[in-house]
Amino acid sequence: MAAGRFVVIVRFLVCLLLACRCCYGLQVCIVGSGMGGASAAFFLRNYSTAPLDIDIFEQNDKVGGRMAVVELAGDTFEAGASILHPKNLHAVNFVNLLGLKPRSDPDDEGFGIWNGSKFVFKTANAGDSFISKITTQILNTLAVMWRYGTSLWSMQNYVSDLLEKFLLLYQEGRPGFETVEELLKSVDLYESTQYPVQELLVKYGLSNLIIDELVTFIMRINYGQNVSISGMAGGVSLCGSGGDLWAVEGGNWQIPEGLIRYTNASLHLKSRVVSVTLEDSGYIVELESGGTKACDTVILATSLDESKIEINPKVKLPQRSMQHTYTTFIRGLLNAEYFGMSSDTIPDLIGTVEDPAIPFSSINVLKEYSVSDKAYKAFSRAPLSDELLDKFFSTRSSTIRIDWAAYPHYTPPEKFAPYILDGHHLYYVNAFENAASSIETSAVSAQNVVRILLSRLLHGNLEQPKLSSVAGLIKDGTVEDL
Ligand SMILES: Cc1cc2nc3c(=O)[nH]c(=O)nc-3n(C[C@H](O)[C@H](O)[C@H](O)COP(=O)(O)OP(=O)(O)OC[C@H]3O[C@@H](n4cnc5c(N)ncnc54)[C@H](O)[C@@H]3O)c2cc1C
Ligand SMILES: *[C@@H]1O[C@H](CO)[C@@H](O)[C@H](O)[C@H]1NC(C)=O
Ligand SMILES: *[C@@H]1O[C@H](CO)[C@@H](O)[C@H](O)[C@H]1NC(C)=O
Ligand SMILES: *[C@@H]1O[C@H](CO)[C@@H](O)[C@H](O)[C@H]1NC(C)=O
Ligand SMILES: *[C@@H]1O[C@H](CO)[C@@H](O)[C@H](O)[C@H]1NC(C)=O
């Protein structure tokens, strides 16, 4: 085995030395074409001075994974990951690099927090005119401040402190870290994965009222869970609730799609990987179709919890289960009476408190065609039956249901799978998902994986090594292995 790994290194160094296409590149195989896999391909190209052959295997017939769109009665909406934060610097950079068009997420929609029988808090929907938008915004801000008081600032402080630490991850020239723990500890974020967000927010001075209502409402929308999720996941979720959020015009999936094209990686769609086996000369990736691919290194860029990939020899991962989020798209009209309101005062975004008796987490308006015809998206922890939907909706012309294995079910203190699964060259981008699951964190994690992959192949640095030291290595090595 050790010899096998050495061959990989020597081959890589020879490629570096020759730095030309005349020799074959290191064969990198990536499983998954979502943000994690696509970002890994990008950073491999971005950081490697050696020629690399990159193959990406994707089981679906399209790229993007949990970044996908759905077509509802002729209109296209985000079906999975829908929003980005302005400080999601990789995403911002990728969108610029690829020439995609950002679109801002309207943050002036009214919202209400439903407790199963009443709105415990509600703001007003903005009208169409500029004046109405501005006055509604001011009144809504006052209403939120009136109810939650200084806890709002404390919540803001919590988010800024976390964000400040997270931004340190973008410093160029950072080393790669072989475990998520070390990566997080390097920016002082590890602790936040070890305690429920509720506990940390109380320390920041948030009242029980804001935690039970506003914070819970946000956690249920963004992670389908409650304030028992970790401080880190909770913080990322709070970040996804502020102003200035944005998305890619035409669909966020275009980021991974563009990155894969940009990197010239060979993309294999409808190619489900069933096993990855370590052999003396590297890895054999086996497809469901029966085909195989020999790879020097393999990057797994999918959550292993539900995608049954056999790894030989076996590796042991900490227990983790995925939280399923049922996403239901409805064209029709919400039954305002069910919520005890008239249809013009019902909030555009209805969120909920944590109560198992409430069968949904949120329902929001995506688009308004007329006063009696709108497109909606609902999130729930269990499927919404027609019978249930008929209670919430007075008319319903189309319905689409998607069952996502959406993000981990967070149970702090979080335990992390290692980035290097087998001690050789099998890497796992989604080990990071126990800290938080998002578009941006997938890119951050992929960047770290590429750093360790390249530095382990180059014995500890990302830059092109001095020729003499490389030559020395090759002389010392068993060159006949080549
Ligand atoms: C409903 C929902 C809403 C969300 N909202 C947001 C949001 O607003 N903002 C945000 O930042 N994040 C959001 N997220 C989270 C975000 O979507 C994910 O964290 C991120 O997209 C994960 O990317 P990934 O590449 O790690 O995994 P994935 O996107 O899951 O990609 C993995 C890919 O691997 C493929 N695959 C799996 N097994 C195999 C196999 N054996 N062989 C070949 N291919 C395989 C899959 O088909 C998939 O394409 C949301 C997620 C969901 C579900
Ligand atoms: C790496 O990416 C950055 C940001 O997109 C870019 O400025 C730089 O030129 C890239 N370097 C290489 C070698 O691709
Ligand atoms: C919902 O809130 C109302 C008003 O605050 C309260 O009277 C009612 O008991 C609550 N219902 C539930 C199910 O919590
Ligand atoms: C929050 O979620 C956890 C995990 O699913 C659950 O055990 C707990 O009971 C929930 N909290 C409340 C207040 O319902
Ligand atoms: C992709 O291929 C094109 C055409 O061969 C080439 O010009 C470009 O530099 C390649 N891009 C990368 C990132 O290697």
TrEMBL record:
Residues 1-25 form the signal peptide. Residues 135-457 form the Prenylcysteine lyase domain. InterPro entries: FAD/NAD-bd_sf, Prenylcys_lyase, Prenylcysteine_Oxase1. Its cofactor is FAD. It comes from the Eukaryota. Gene3D superfamilies: FAD/NAD(P)-binding domain (3.50.50.60). SUPFAM superfamilies: FAD/NAD(P)-binding domain. Keywords: FAD, Flavoprotein, Glycoprotein, Oxidoreductase, Signal. It holds the Pfam family NAD_binding_8. Belongs to the prenylcysteine oxidase family. PANTHER family: FARNESYLCYSTEINE LYASE, PRENYLCYSTEINE LYASE DOMAIN-CONTAINING PROTEIN. This is Prenylcysteine lyase domain-containing protein. It comes from Sphagnum troendelagicum.
